[in-house]
Amino acid sequence: MTQLCLNEAVYQCEPGESVLDALTRQGVSVPSSCRSGVCQTCMMQSADANVPSIAQNGLKSTLQAQNYFLACACHPLEDMAISLPDSSNRLLSATVTALRQLNDEIICVGLDCPSLQDYRAGQFINLYRDAEFSRSYSLASVPSDGYLRLHVRRLPDGRMSNWVHDQLKIGDSLQISAPVGSCFYLPGAAQQPLLLIGTGSGLAPLMGILRDALNQQHAGAIHLYHGSRDAAGLYLVDELCEMASHYPNFHYTPCVSDSTATSAHQSGRAVDVALAAHPDLAGWRVYLCGNPDMVKSARKKAYLAKAAMNDIHADAFVRVAAANQ
User: Fold this and answer.
1) DSSP labels for 58-75?
2) Residue 124 in 3-state DSSP?
3) Which terminus of the chain, N or C, has less C-beta within 10 A?
4) What are the pLDDT digits (tens) for 178-220?
5) CB under 8 Å to 45, separation ≥6 — which residues?
6) Cα(83)–Cα(77) distance, rounded to whole angstroms?
7) Residue 214: exposed, middle, or buried by beta-carbon count in 10 A (0-12, 13-18, 19+)?
8) Geometric angle at alpha carbon 221, from 219 and 207, rounded to 5°
9) pLDDT per residue over 233-258, tens digit each?
10) Whole-model pTM?
């Protein structure tokens, strides 16, 4: 068992336990979101040079040199003296410019962030409610929009999502992180067919990826399958149908798992409908966003359908307790 010294208090870290899990288990509030080493919300700093290298994966070399590390990916082998870094110099100020209800559960939040000019559509930001509480949301916008777009789904007892739905107002100021994540469109293979599969608010990054691909004149076929349990969970249907009528290489299929097929949607889970229509994915690029269980299952199914592992892209989010959403 190792010991963690934080703010002159000592906390026990069980064998195999991450720094993040050890601290939260003992009542310490540590900003966190994806818990998979991608969003960098849980970044901490060690006073020693004994940081496991895996805990620094994805960090800039300048941060690694200062012994910064990701608490969710750090499984210490010896005692560590750690601290939470001052986040004020790495957060960006943003202003709420638009709030649009997309369906009963999902609201689109528009943000103006003048200091953020460059990002990849499909990446995600960390939205801060206060200094200690944040959540990750994918970007549905593209840089040419001039503003950011988030799709926030209300979750039962969700601290962040209910705050966004019930209290956030146009004109409010808040803080966000710089965009991170590797689930975005890559130019250079304009003829490659693209398969986009999403559920719920997982449509947000897929919208960004889709718009970015079309803006960059991607010529290969683009198939988007968006799924929900019922038709009420679908959204942006009219906009996507209009895009499909405008771009001959784009095809949109809404899917409803708890219903029979109609002229408006297909019956079944999005991943099943998609793979039934495209059983051989050799040479395809695949994007998976939404429910973590769906993403995990779809990743395996896409690989078994002959998609190359480096052509399968997925968002990084994992389930956390509902009270923390």
Assistant:
1) TS-HHHHHTTEEEGGG--
2) strand
3) N
4) 887 778 998 889 999 999 999 999 999 999 999 999 999 999 9
5) 66, 67, 68, 69, 82, 83, 84, 85
6) 18
7) middle
8) 90
9) 999 999 999 999 999 999 999 999 98
10) 0.77
